[in-house]
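Example record used in the benchmark description.
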Amino acid sequence: MSAQPGTHLETQIRSQPDELSHLLTSEKTREQIHGAAEGLQRSRRIWLVGTGTSHHAAILGAGMLQDAGRSAVAVSSMRFVVWAPIVGPDDAIIVITHTGETAYALAARALATTAGLHVITITKRGTPFPHAVETSPAETSETYTVSYTTTLLVLAMIAKEMGADSITDDALALIPGAVRAAIEAPGTETIQVPQRSLVIAGAGPAAFTAREGALKLREGARVLAEGHDIEYLLHGSAVPLSANDGLLSLMTPEADGFVEAVTAAAEAEGIPSYRLAEPAPLPMLLAQIPLTVRLQLLALRFAIERGQDPDTVITGNWAAPELWRIGRPDN
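Model output (structure tokens):
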């Protein structure tokens, strides 16, 4: 697959195996991970805060820390600032902001710092925050990809350091290769651009990968897409779907066959339906990393087919500087 001239999205997607390998082998990263885990070990509860793609990472990261036996809760940056949860003095916060400039993420960081909480920031390389864990260089496409998967890996490494049962060194070592395999054979080649909308649905952690995949399709390809928990989809959200739409089901190991049953029902209703599974032998939470890459590539292909620019996403009135300054602690 070749992107249009001037498109950086494919370059970012293809950089992921090397960037993930770098994190696993970097002495600097190991020191940052150790410092983060050491600080979090003393915390009663851990809040993970982010906006958009970073919020999706926060949700999966909370699951990883829960696997380590910790009380971990993911909330959006704006909710943490404007509708603050009850936070105690022994709590800690992980703020996820790739750019280091996201308004409400910075406000959450400032609020937590003022309250005396232990604050860790997961961000791009070269951002001068104390207690930071750096992921990848600044992205060259506004359809963020490598910053997401490297953030997930950082969160997994922290969880492993804190004793997560399913996250081992052997499992982490498989991730770059699984991502490389996803890039070489994404498994999404038969999925067609829908006439109206594409719904992506999954169960458990895959439900949040569905949301992230839908966001990439909306940003990069300007395709109307939705990401759903498969149960939520059945309970009303599937009602308006028709042959003008599509359903992409993220298939995960399941005992009751619920995802397959809902997908079969969609097919019986005449809705074009597709199935996508992650074949890498990874624990469910880690499997979301290569599975997400498959959806990134789908967004790239749709962008190319539709003649869209996936690198410049926020335009027009949506890009008004005053909108993006709202919530900043320095306003």
